[in-house]
Write a structure and sequence with these properties.
Blueprint: E1 15-17, H1 23-31, E2 37-39, H2 42-46, H3 50-55, H4 73-77, E3 106-110, H5 114-125, E4 129-133, H6 142-146, H7 155-168, E5 172-174, E6 189-192, E7 196-198, E8 211-213, H8 214-218, E9 227-231, H9 235-246, H10 253-259, E10 284-288, H11 301-313, E11 317-319, E12 323-328, E13 331-336, E14 339-344, E15 347-350, E16 354-356, H12 361-365, E17 371-373, H13 385-398
Parallel strand pairs: 1-2, 3-4, 3-6, 4-5, 6-17, 8-15, 9-10, 9-15, 10-11
Antiparallel strand pairs: 7-16, 12-13, 13-14
Bound molecules: flavin-adenine dinucleotide (FAD) and iron/sulfur cluster.
Flavin-adenine dinucleotide (FAD) binds next to helix 5, helix 6, helix 9 and helix 13.
């Protein structure tokens, strides 16, 4: 039988794929007659029980694929075994221990970023009594900031998954609660997952009021400027530029197709009607990077080129291989190739890396309980959510 909706054009059934990551998306496609079947791959890496949970009406318990490509396609392009950022068990099922009952202990997990969330889930599933402390008013840590960036909103699905499954596994979640060192006396062991803090920079003028951190921009505590210089061209610098231009809202299908000149008449070869043009933006953004190289040089192969292309189309300027000289009230002075350059700016956003948040670690240890340090608190260098989820999962089996 051919496809009903496109029977004029097609006499065979249609299977569609890509970004069908939740049962309701699949159902909608079938209901609208856009395809006769849906095909999925990455969503089953993120959650092998996807179909079972959908059948049982438990979509809230699905660990959703967020389309990051970081542990599946990027691994394959680096000749590594594919796995999944949100599910470190994927394709490594036989390498992880089985979830077995532990002698129950009272465990405090201090910080609900990805490391603390993953640790809490495995510990609770093994029968421990877990209390998860989070000083913010919601779980998620830096992933909450990431989910503010248009195009990364699916991290919110990861946080929905943890809200549902942690409650199901009886984890006590204390948001808006700072774990204090003296709380250690109420627990048998402590998992220290306090994450990272934005790095400060030492440039003359960095204490001026228009010099702000990426977290202040992304959490809305400072209003965005108009002429903006971003210091740091890593993933967070690029995301901050995207947020400043595109905000938090996901782009609609129509906007996306218009921006990338997708041919909606499906008559052009390759599905593109013209070369995408530069977009007019109300922000004038320059990203600076001290070292030589492309922006986002540590991002994965499958996505870095898209970010670079987007930055170009959005008119974001980029300068590398430079020295910072000083920040003034009207901009920043740099030296590049033996030349001094002044870039006017009403806002300077610092995205220059992170340091481990060790604020209370020594004091907590002084209570004599075993303390396990994971995620960004253990090592801030080359940290990402993949490593944080993996380390949280690992400690979940070790206690
Ligand atoms: C804008 C942005 C985009 C990003 N995009 C990506 C991406 O696409 N892919 C990727 O892999 N990674 C991305 N990251 C990085 C990723 O979010 C981090 O690597 C990861 O969140 C680190 O996890 P963590 O659990 O170690 O620490 P964090 O996420 O920093 O979480 C630590 C938590 O501990 C809490 N805390 C600290 N002290 C206490 C205390 N005493 N009591 C209670 N709570 C406490 C903090 O409030 C925080 O919620 C992004 C980050 C940002 C900012
Ligand atoms: S690594 Fe990212 S894109 Fe790949 S399956 Fe997991 S969540 Fe999806």
């Amino acid at each position: 039988m051919g496809n009903q909706k496109y029977q004029k054009e097609l006499s065979i059934p249609v299977i569609t794929t890509n970004r069908i990551n939740m049962p309701d998306v699949a159902e909608q496609i079938l209901r609208d007659g856009d395809a006769d079947m849906v095909s999925m791959a990455r969503p089953f890496l993120a959650d092998p029980d996807f179909v079972k949970k959908a059948q049982l009406g438990k979509s809230g318990e699905i660990n959703t694929c967020i389309a990051c490509n970081q542990a599946c396609l990027d691994h394959i392009f680096n000749q590594k075994v594919a796995t999944c950022l949100v599910n470190p068990f994927a394709c490594k099922e036989t390498e992880w221990p089985k979830i077995t009952e532990a002698i129950p202990k009272r465990i405090a997990v201090t910080g609900a970023g990805p490391a603390g969330l993953a640790a809490s889930l495995i510990l609770a599933r093994r029968g421990h009594h877990v209390t998860l402390f989070e000083k913010g008013d919601e779980i998620g840590g830096q992933l909450r900031l990431a989910s503010q960036v248009s195009g990364k909103e699916e991290f919110r699905e990861t946080l929905r998954f943890y809200r549902v499954v942690l409650a199901k596994n009886n984890v006590t979640i204390k948001t808006s609660t700072v774990f204090q060192p003296e709380d250690a006396s109420n627990f048998d062991e402590i998992v220290y997952s306090a994450g990272v803090l934005p790095k400060e920079i030492e440039i003359e003028g960095s204490d001026l009021p228009h010099v702000v951190r990426y977290d202040q921009v992304l959490n809305g505590s400072v209003a965005p400027g108009k002429n903006i210089v971003i210091i740091g061209a890593g993933g967070i610098g690029i995301d901050t530029a995207m947020f400043l231009i595109k905000g938090s809202d996901p782009e609609s299908k129509q906007e996306f197709m218009k921006r990338w000149k997708v041919d909606a008449t499906w008559s052009q070869r390759g599905g593109i009607s013209a070369i995408p043009e530069k977009h007019i933006s109300s922000k004038n953004i320059t990203i600076l990077q001290r070292s030589k190289g492309k922006p986002g040089k540590h991002l994965g192969k499958t996505t870095a080129w898209i970010h670079r292309e987007e930055l170009k189309l959005l008119g974001v300027k980029y300068l590398d291989d430079l020295q910072y000289k000083k920040i003034t009230s009207s901009g920043i002075e740099i030296s590049r190739g033996g030349e001094d350059i002044f870039i006017e700016a009403d806002q300077i956003v610092i995205c220059a890396g992170q340091t481990s948040n060790l604020a209370m670690l020594d004091e907590i240890k002084s209570y004599g309980k075993p303390v396990h340090v994971i995620g960004g608190a253990l090592r801030a260098g080359e940290l990402d959510a993949k490593r944080a989820f993996e380390e949280g999962t690992r400690i979940g089996f070790e206690i």
